[in-house]
């Protein structure tokens, strides 16, 4: 029943001499297009049919929804197995088990789109298996098909699709998957020149044909419910008629809610415009005599048909006519699954106002082979729509496929797997931002990202600054960690005047940082000249203090600089007396520094010797202990944290991945100087191999960055309400603030958060070339129960974790595992 002859130079040659070529294509992501945008895309899609499909040739699109394979998360397991941190290893392995369970239950699938087009050689150049061509004839026919293939790729690219020609292995693989649906991976195609197997059959050398390579599965057509292909149950459902009216992108309705293995096949054979014109004229002449001839009583049905024919004639030169059909192929692992899939597919099809869908039962085998990829057969139930209707059968948008490789695998709302990695050559930078209301799952998302990336890059460095202790349990559980708390009750001390090992004087960068630190206490004067005097006085006092302490074991600190400012009268490098204005500025600075010294509650924190040396690779900076409204203490903490972040960025080799994240960004970064610090980080951190991230409830915080907003290559946006997403005349909405596609006004309010299941975010990634804008999808952030209880940070959850961890003697992982065991009996 199969017309395959052979695959020659990426083109399928059929037994009757026709050729078929294939093209993989990826429609743009559906997060970009409103219904109005889809209507406007019709003209670009129309060009694909009008310019790329010749008369009498058949164009087929295959929207393939296939069950995911366990092999797809092998890399996740591989990263976990070699990870030296036992907690990261266990969390990643339990996540892999969770994904495997979803794969085995058929919950997650992959979308793939490809198209095939027939090429019929002219009558004087026709050949067949009975009249084999010469090598020259075959080469000429194949080159013609390749020319059409290049043209179709160009047309699809112009219409906004990512298209690529299918190689011989891809052609073979798609045919193989169709005929052997139970095989997870197709074997390598053996071309004609390599087919002679070194064995004898009946005394002669064995030549392995294409059909023998493809025929690896037995077909049982005895069951009345439908054929069994190997270990898979198969059924075909076709549209009994096309919809009364079509809607752009209605293919999405056909596939909504489906998971498992499906194919939605649209076939369209373009009819010759001249033949269509003659046919319509003959019909019109016949109907005219039955409707408008003198003395004839008009027939109502004939009158309606005449109006249809005249309307069709009005489309001549504007629209082409096709023979077209739509079928859905279901491939199930059991009879019960087939029934479930069939009910869902039939329910979707009946929503199209296209009549009851046709099921074939045991006759599905004929339709199944007729619809096989790279054949020129025509299936049943073909209709004659025009171009504008045919393009409504074409998939204009699709789920986002993610990256080629990733540290973490998300599940999209469409139940497909999305690989994601902050560090990938497919995007401009590794920086990211999370914008979401409180309770949306920001913390779980951030920790999922970091858990996965630290597992993939075990020598990487992570620095998180946080105002709510949300990340504390995660860091406490890690092997190589340091938790630094800021606040009046903190025991951690950092002397801002410490130098790098071996240095006796600050370099320009350190001196600039020290001047900025002193400026936290000494406000800049409005007069530029006075500011210059103060800057000179401060820098001279700092340098003089370092020279004074050059031979001492104790390091200089803020109080020593204050004393120097009070006493300094001469420049240290020349010995010349200072100008009176500079001396006056020094005394003024010394007086204002007193608010951080002596009996000041800030003094033990800013005028101290260091008792912490940071060597850990996972550093948590908590500002939870700083009272709300204590802006000076917040600025001091930010300055120390900024120094740690820059130290991490610069000290480690560039090949080492570094992750720096600031949670509750809008509360931690408030002054112009702090915003300027973050802007500098955005500009240069990419050169140091840093992924800089922020988390915030307020999208307007992105206004701080101005044109640097695009430096955040990855955006995660949570479920804002409709009024906040759209905005109003008085207040800008989230979509406008973040420059999101217009359709996100409809999408964001629908993002859900199912307790103990998943949180939904819109993921938008800026492509490396920037030409296509942002791509992405709606993702469901889903973690194992073990990870969720380690990551979650609500009061009730933390209180319960505290009790279990205390019972485990402070072992975080053991305590959380006991908690999860008691609640669920399973970590997954």
From TrEMBL:
Residues covered by the Helicase HerA central domain: 429-557
InterPro entries attached to this UniProt entry: HerA_central, P-loop_NTPase, T4SS_component
Domain of life of the native organism: Bacteria
UniProt cross-references to PANTHER family, sorted A to Z: SLR6007 PROTEIN, UNCHARACTERIZED PROTEIN YJGR-RELATED
UniProt protein name: Helicase HerA central domain-containing protein
Origin species: Deinococcus phoenicis
């Amino acid at each position: 029943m199969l017309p395959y002859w052979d695959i020659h130079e990426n083109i399928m040659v059929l037994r009757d001499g026709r050729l078929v070529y294939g093209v993989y294509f990826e429609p743009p992501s559906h997060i970009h297009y409103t219904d109005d945008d889809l209507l406007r895309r019709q003209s670009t899609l129309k060009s694909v049919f009008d310019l790329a499909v010749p008369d009498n040739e058949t164009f087929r699109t295959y929207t393939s929804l296939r069950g995911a394979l366990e092999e797809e998360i092998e890399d996740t397991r591989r990263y976990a197995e070699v990870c030296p941190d036992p907690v990261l290893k266990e969390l990643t392995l339990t996540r892999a088990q969770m994904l495997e369970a979803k794969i085995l239950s058929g919950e997650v699938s992959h979308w793939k789109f490809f198209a095939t087009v027939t090429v019929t050689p002219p009558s004087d150049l026709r050949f067949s298996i009975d009249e084999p061509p010469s090598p020259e004839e075959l080469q000429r026919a194949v080159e013609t098909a390749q020319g059409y293939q290049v043209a179709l790729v160009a047309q699809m690219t112009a219409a906004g699709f990512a298209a690529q020609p299918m190689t011989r292995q891809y052609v073979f693989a798609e045919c193989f998957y169709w005929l052997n649906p139970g095989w997870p991976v197709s074997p390598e195609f053996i071309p004609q020149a390599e087919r002679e197997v070194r064995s004898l059959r009946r005394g002669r050398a064995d030549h392995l044909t294409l059909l023998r390579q493809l025929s690896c599965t037995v077909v049982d057509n005895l069951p009345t419910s439908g054929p069994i292909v190997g270990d898979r149950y198969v059924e075909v459902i076709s549209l009994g008629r096309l919809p009364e009216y079509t809607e752009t992108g209605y293919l999405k309705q056909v596939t909504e809610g489906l998971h498992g293995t499906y194919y939605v096949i649209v076939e369209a054979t373009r009819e010759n415009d001249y033949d269509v014109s003659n046919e319509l004229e003959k019909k019109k002449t016949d109907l005219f005599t039955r409707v408008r001839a003198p003395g004839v009583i008009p027939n109502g049905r004939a009158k309606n048909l005449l109006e249809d024919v005249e309307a069709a004639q009005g489309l001549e030169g504007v629209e082409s006519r096709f023979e077209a059909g739509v079928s859905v192929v279901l491939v199930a692992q059991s009879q019960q699954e087939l029934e479930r899939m069939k009910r869902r597919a039939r329910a979707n099809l009946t929503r199209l106002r296209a009549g009851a869908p046709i099921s074939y039962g045991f006759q599905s085998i004929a339709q199944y082979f007729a619809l096989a990829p790279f054949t020129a057969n025509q299936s049943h139930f073909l209709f004659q729509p025009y171009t504008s209707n045919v393009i409504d059968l074409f998939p204009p948008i699709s789920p986002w496929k993610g990256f080629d490789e990733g540290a973490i695998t998300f599940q999209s709302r469409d139940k497909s797997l999305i690989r994601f990695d902050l560090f990938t050559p497919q995007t401009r930078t590794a920086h990211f931002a999370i914008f979401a209301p409180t309770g949306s799952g920001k913390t779980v998302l951030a920790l999922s990202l970091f858990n996965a990336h630290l597992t993939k890059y075990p020598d990487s460095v992570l620095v998180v600054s946080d105002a709510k202790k949300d990340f504390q349990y995660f860091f406490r559980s890690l092997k190589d960690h340091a938790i630094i708390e800021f606040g009046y009750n903190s025991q951690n001390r950092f002397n801002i005047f410490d130098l790098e090992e071996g240095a006796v004087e600050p370099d320009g960068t350190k001196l600039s940082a020290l001047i900025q630190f002193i400026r936290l206490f000494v406000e800049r004067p409005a007069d530029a000249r006075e500011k210059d005097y103060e800057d000179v006085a401060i820098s001279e006092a700092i340098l003089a203090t370092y020279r004074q302490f050059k031979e001492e074991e104790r390091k200089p600190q803020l109080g020593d600089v204050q004393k120097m400012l009070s006493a300094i009268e001469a420049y240290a490098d020349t010995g010349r007396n200072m100008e009176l204005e500079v001396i006056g500025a020094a005394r003024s600075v010394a007086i204002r520094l007193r608010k951080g010294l002596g009996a000041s509650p800030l003094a033990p924190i800013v005028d101290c010797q260091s008792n912490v040396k940071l060597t850990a690779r996972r550093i948590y900076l908590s500002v939870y202990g700083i009272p709300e409204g204590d802006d000076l203490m917040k600025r001091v903490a930010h300055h120390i944290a900024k120094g740690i972040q820059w130290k991490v960025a610069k000290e480690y080799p560039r090949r080492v991945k570094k992750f720096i994240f600031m949670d509750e960004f809008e509360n931690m970064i408030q002054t112009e100087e702090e915003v300027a610090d973050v802007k500098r980080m955005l500009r240069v951190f990419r050169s140091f191999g840093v992924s800089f991230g922020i988390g915030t409830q307020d999208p307007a915080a992105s206004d701080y960055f101005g044109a640097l907003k695009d430096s955040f290559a990855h955006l995660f946006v949570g479920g804002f309400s409709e009024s906040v997403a759209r905005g109003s005349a008085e207040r800008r909405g989230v979509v406008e603030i973040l420059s999101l596609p217009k359709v996100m006004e409809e999408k964001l309010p629908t993002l859900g958060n199912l307790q103990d299941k998943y949180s939904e975010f819109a993921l938008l990634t800026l492509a490396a070339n920037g030409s296509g804008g942002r791509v992405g999808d709606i993702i469901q952030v889903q973690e194992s129960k073990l990870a969720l209880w380690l990551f979650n940070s609500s009061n009730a959850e933390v209180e319960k974790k505290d009790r279990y961890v205390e019972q485990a003697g402070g072992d975080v992982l053991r305590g959380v595992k006991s908690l999860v065991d008691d609640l669920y009996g399973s970590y997954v």
